[in-house]
Amino acid sequence: MAKDGRAVQFTGTAALLNRPSALSRFDADFAEDEDDNGGISVTNVHIRIQQRTTRKSVTTLQGLPDQFDLKHMLKYFKKTFGCLGAVVTDKTYGKVIQLAGDQRIKLRDFLIEEKIAEKKDIVVHGF
């Protein structure tokens, strides 16, 4: 709260993570298919990194089906990786998880260990 009673908006990293224009450089080449047993299999999960400033970056995860609780996954990522994050909804790209910092390898390992996606279905972009 400001001294005059107005609410103060935070303009740091959290504000950047909620910025919808951050998704403008993504391509929409992801899909989801059903297995023969009726389960959901994930294809083409994209993990990307965007450079914000000289030392700051944002990691994004897109391509997970709606059956996954992304807010619960985000809470786990934030606690385990020690970073900020947000779930952003975009008309074109669907729900995207954004995490502060370079978390590409940790995200890939998590998706493989928890059998959410196979290694061949995960595409890691960046540097």
Give a description of the structure.
It is a single chain. The protein is of the alpha+beta class and 127 residues long. The chain has a domain at 53-127: Translation Initiation Factor Eif1. Helices cover 21% and strands 29% of the residues. It has three helices and seven strands, in the order αββββαββαβ. The strands form two sheets. A five-stranded mixed sheet has the order 5-6-4-3-7. The longest helix has 12 residues, at 70-81. The model is unreliable at 7-38 (pLDDT under 50). Keywords: Initiation factor, Protein biosynthesis. It comes from Coemansia helicoidea. This is Eukaryotic translation initiation factor eIF-1.
Descriptive keywords:
Eukaryotic translation initiation factor eIF-1, globular, alpha+beta, protein biosynthesis, 127 residues, five-stranded mixed beta sheet, initiation factor, Translation Initiation Factor Eif1
